[in-house]
């Protein structure tokens, strides 16, 4: 019998956002938390993302809404209206975690709990082993992740999906099966259907071996990070790699430095890269050509100029982009939009928002034909195009200028240029502060 109190030390009045999909694992997690809610006076917020790719999605959302109503649980949901690229699982994950983070802020929660289990960890590790990564990537995901203001807790990582389904059966927990989980077109599904059964036949507790493997790699990587950081101080100058000093480092540390630099551009999208891309960069470094470059995914360029290697966005090639905004966003114009605690600055480089008045997650994108903004202090709207003209923004800069919109496409801010009616004064109520720099 699964007892989550044996796994995690709960405290009175813990405030927890729970990611719930209505699948057997997440419904089991909610049921387990309900069983101890009164004992610890837990404040539970059930967060559901409607991925909007199956006809059953609406039925599942309505089921969960009613379930929460019957059990006196706070229910929060969002629907993904459209996807921007072909990497469905990765993009959906980014949207989910941006949504969860907004709820953490809204309810001042100290924990985000998700229903990731042992099978999920095995799949992630195997996929990254085949694709190629560094030690941190090969370790999969962590049981506990400290996010400074809150912690991500994966209580079920020590159990298999079959064990959670057995829990649901014993406790009469209703759940839904996602039909897309059986489709071979998704990489993760192929690992789930064909590799995991073989491994479990070899050892029914193999998921615990993978967890031990993950923890060992993670602990090793913490040591490696310290050595890498020392090396960064030796080889970096103004954010660029000095190749003569870089080549003096151990090859392993060299690769870690490259991964560190790439993380600035890809963050959670590091899955877009594989060993071939890393090898391309090293071929560039070792090339006899004094000036050369290689193209990487998402318009990133690794450029070599004599003794300097630089990673940058190819802004000349970018005519449109769309980036989910959580806490930090590097833009094609090499500027940054980041979420900060607060500031006394009231310029157009700062935007204060009340999350209850907009639809999260926020998205930073290039302009679209017909874009309009409800200008702060103005009764009505104004075309973004006219604002560019008024501010004398050069034609070549307009297509890559960032526009911040909510998930419904409402323009909430034109960084550096104009605030919308959604912008708040310092003495107003707001829970999101963005800075453009």
Structure description:
The structure is a single chain. The protein has 437 residues and is an alpha+beta fold. It has 3 domains: 4-209, Rossmann fold (3-Layer(aba) Sandwich), CATH 3.40.50.620; 238-313, Uridine Diphospho-n-acetylenolpyruvylglucosamine Reductase, domain 3 (2-Layer Sandwich); 322-436, 3-Layer(bba) Sandwich (Phenylalanyl-tRNA Synthetase, Chain B, domain 3). It has helices at 24-40, 57-70, 88-107, 118-131, 135-138, 161-170, 187-202, 206-235, 243-246, 251-266, 275-286, 384-390, 395-398; strands at residues 15-19, 43-50, 74-79, 111-113, 144-146, 151-153, 236-237, 240-242, 291-296, 300-305, 308-313, 322-325, 328-330, 336-339, 350-353, 362-365, 372-373, 382-383, 403-405, 411-414, 418-419, 432-436. A 6-stranded mixed sheet has the order 3-2-1-4-6-5, sandwiched between helices. The protein has a 5-stranded antiparallel sheet with strand order 7-8-11-10-9. A 5-stranded antiparallel sheet has the order 12-16-19-20-21. It is globular. It starts with 14 loop residues before the first strand and ends with a strand.
